Amino acid sequence: MIYLDHAAATPMSDKVIEAMRPYFSHDFFNPSAAYLPAKKVAADYEAAKATIAHAIGAKAADLVITAGATEANNLAFNGISRVLYLETEHDSVREVAKQRGGVAIKVLRSGLIDLEDLKAKITDETELISVALVNGEIGVIQPLAEIAAIIREVRLDRLRRGIKTRLLLHSDASQALNLLDVSVARLGVDLLTLNAAKIYGPKGVGALYASHEAKLSPAIIGGGQENGLRSGTENVPGVIGFAKAIELAKEHLNGNRKKYAELKRTLLANLQGYELIVKKHQLDNFVNLCYNGIDGERLVFLLEDHEIYVATGAACAASKGEKSHVLKAIGLSDSEIAGSLRLTLGETNTKEQLEEAARVINEVVAKEQRRLYD
Amino acid sequence: MIYLDHAAATPMSDKVIEAMRPYFSHDFFNPSAAYLPAKKVAADYEAAKATIAHAIGAKAADLVITAGATEANNLAFNGISRVLYLETEHDSVREVAKQRGGVAIKVLRSGLIDLEDLKAKITDETELISVALVNGEIGVIQPLAEIAAIIREVRLDRLRRGIKTRLLLHSDASQALNLLDVSVARLGVDLLTLNAAKIYGPKGVGALYASHEAKLSPAIIGGGQENGLRSGTENVPGVIGFAKAIELAKEHLNGNRKKYAELKRTLLANLQGYELIVKKHQLDNFVNLCYNGIDGERLVFLLEDHEIYVATGAACAASKGEKSHVLKAIGLSDSEIAGSLRLTLGETNTKEQLEEAARVINEVVAKEQRRLYD
């Protein structure tokens, strides 16, 4: 098997499973219980939250643990009514934003945010701007610090004019942590979404970082866990696994960057007849190919026969049979979108695998071209 | 260790962990991806949902997987405005109900619902009635079928008078599945909350059963998973584990009932100087003791020194330092509430353990009485 869809899902690392194991049936106590072993579990849970928080330069108290990135994105928008969001955002941002009077900010052909469009669309009512650090489909890294600088200007201007509406910056960093050193202060974000399942951690665990400014409204109410913002008995093994995963991601950051840059070079050097959809400002484990005139979905199935697993776009969009709104937003034609492939590299990949993958992709594409045009 | 707090948390069964293991790092694919191994994972996920649904006499399509019972309870109330709820409900029902114009239904001294009070409080506007099948603090089993019969009467009457407001019955069955054969048809519920973490399954996984009548509103929006009602990449290992746990609970139902009835008899035969808070209509693994004049919280700490772990009430209420609203509702005085202990039996317990626990509890209580009153 050559798995090239790490943006859709990552296998749990052995070290993550190992870290979680004691909490399954040994340290299984309810962290809210009064006796010592439960208090030890509560302390371990808090320590894990601190590890996750520190990895992004934050404190445990600023973190709300959720059941994944989608819930975290929903929570970020809770109680907020005027939002701007990048048109290439994931559905969990787009759909929520639309419900909350959301206006889309354009992207350039490069996939980067159109900063002029952003500036033009900020009004005195705008409360939140949501821009993913790394796009899940095309891996484009957005200039969050520049966006944050624009927001600071607006805030200052509002202050001068006595306008009390706050303006927050939210970013979904789900895809970023394997390759970028993420710091909430450096990025200038008020809200940041994290996702364990994309960094070799457990599924169904995520977090929302929220600065004091953000003043979140509770999304799920009940027993009062997570400072009352997200009630429900804590998923202790999940959070322990998340902490281990983020720790490992941090540890391997430099190695990963080098590794994926090299793997990507190998892949592209061996592939033929493609166009690169994104050429710059892209995370090194993303490769977006376009074979114009060929059906990408058919390629996915043909490659499957060779146990090579790739995607055309985001998994959840694919399952709904929708055309990629991301590729459309950056200006690709329908036939270019139809001919696109997303390859996302990860820990399971080797140089040999990518040479082999390139060889098979070339072969399959050539066969398809002959079938269609000869 | 003698663990007597199974209502707060249960250890994951080895068989559950075994069932989940392949989905950690082998069958880790995103169920929404297009290639075969991902489709196999999606099929396994659906099969697990079917197993959970069948255990309560429902279909997989009627089930929304959530990150736990609290989220399921929140989802059940989503978009509904006039509700009645039993005053002894868990905070995840009470707090949500209060936000939605909720009116509390009284309980009798027995802990059972006051059916006359229920009837008196149903108005033409009432949309939802929420009564947990088994109370999490005192294990009282509510007569849901009787409540459902009352609701059917009201529906019929509304139909006759041309009132279009629907009336739904919701029940939190989190604590029930180890000992009761739960069937949505027999109970007559439209909405039913399930919780994996209370039946030796994984933490952070639950479900809401919803009949067609219920017409749920989406709680978390995004990629459109769970029929659009609860978006987010599926927690595949969690749901696989939940299915195994509910299967095991079903399998051991009769054995469990016998086992816990016997264990409870052993415990009560060996304990001295207590009063039973609940004498009838109680799940067999619940034992609620009252030592009037003694501080239950102090007993919890004293028993901890003997590695015997018990509770005074629900874990989440305990951690907030609140007095039990449940014991208050059934009419206990402040000093009776202060002197209460909740012992909940489970798979980790043996007859010898309960004899030993009774011996130590007697000793500790006697010592406390001497300290206070001699």
Offer a concise description of the structure:
The first copy, chain A, folds into two domains: 2-10 and 253-373, Aspartate Aminotransferase, domain 1 (Alpha-Beta Complex), CATH 3.90.1150; 14-251, Type I PLP-dependent aspartate aminotransferase-like (Major domain) (Aspartate Aminotransferase, domain 2, 3-Layer(aba) Sandwich). In chain A, 42% of the residues lie in helices and 12% in strands. Chain A has helices at residues 14-20, 22-25, 36-55, 69-77, 91-99, 115-121, 144-160, 184-187, 236-251, 253-270, 296-304, 315-319, 325-329, 334-338, 351-373, and strands spanning 2-3, 63-66, 83-86, 103-105, 128-130, 168-172, 191-195, 206-210, 275-276, 286-290, 308-309, 340-344.
Verbal overview:
With 374 residues, the first copy, chain A, is of the alpha/beta class. Chain A folds into 2 domains: 2-10 and 253-373, Aspartate Aminotransferase, domain 1, CATH 3.90.1150; 14-251, Aspartate Aminotransferase, domain 2 (3-Layer(aba) Sandwich). Chain A is built from 15 helices and 12 strands. The first copy, chain A, has helices spanning 14-20, 22-25, 36-55, 69-77, 91-99, 115-121, 144-160, 184-187, 236-251, 253-270, 296-304, 315-319, 325-329, 334-338, 351-373, and strands at residues 2-3, 63-66, 83-86, 103-105, 128-130, 168-172, 191-195, 206-210, 275-276, 286-290, 308-309, 340-344. In chain A, helix 3 (36-55) runs parallel beside helix 9 (236-251), helix 4 (69-77) packs parallel to helix 5 (91-99) and helix 10 (253-270) packs parallel to helix 15 (351-373). The longest helix of chain A is centred in the last third of the chain and has 23 residues, at 351-373. Chain A starts with a strand and ends with a helix. The mean pLDDT of chain A is 95. The interface between A and B is large, with 74 and 73 residues.
